[in-house]
Amino acid sequence: MFKSCLWIMTFRLLEHSMKYYTWLPWCNLFAVQLGRVERVLPIPGIDSRLRPNIVVTDAEKKKVLLVDVTVPFENRSPAFHEARARKESKYTPLAETLRAQGYEVQVHALIVGALGSWDPRNEMVLRACGVG
Length: 132
What we know:
The chain has helices at 2-20, 25-34, 76-100, 122-128, and strands at 36-39, 54-58, 63-70, 104-111. The chain is an alpha+beta fold. A hairpin with a 4-residue loop joins β2 (54-58) and β3 (63-70). 46% of the residues lie in helices and 19% in strands. It has one domain.
């Protein structure tokens, strides 16, 4: 429970910082380490209505990280597996379009249950984002 609350507070702070462009020092560090960080914006040069919650782009290394946050109903681990599969399949066409342009693409789902459960695979997603 504590871990999910901490993540939600961190995500809200990042979301607020990005919304008003009042970057905090740790947000600058996050952006410098990973590349350009955008929140729910269309990806430049891509004609798609799909908008992941977090897009990290490193133009020099030609890498893109797509992260979508989801809060499924907590019906044991199968609900988390299904939610992850839905998010990954949803963004596969967008990832393929970016790969066709020469980008190395990672698609992740960050899952926090409706009652605060923490998906253990979120640790991998956070490491990919440079957090944790």
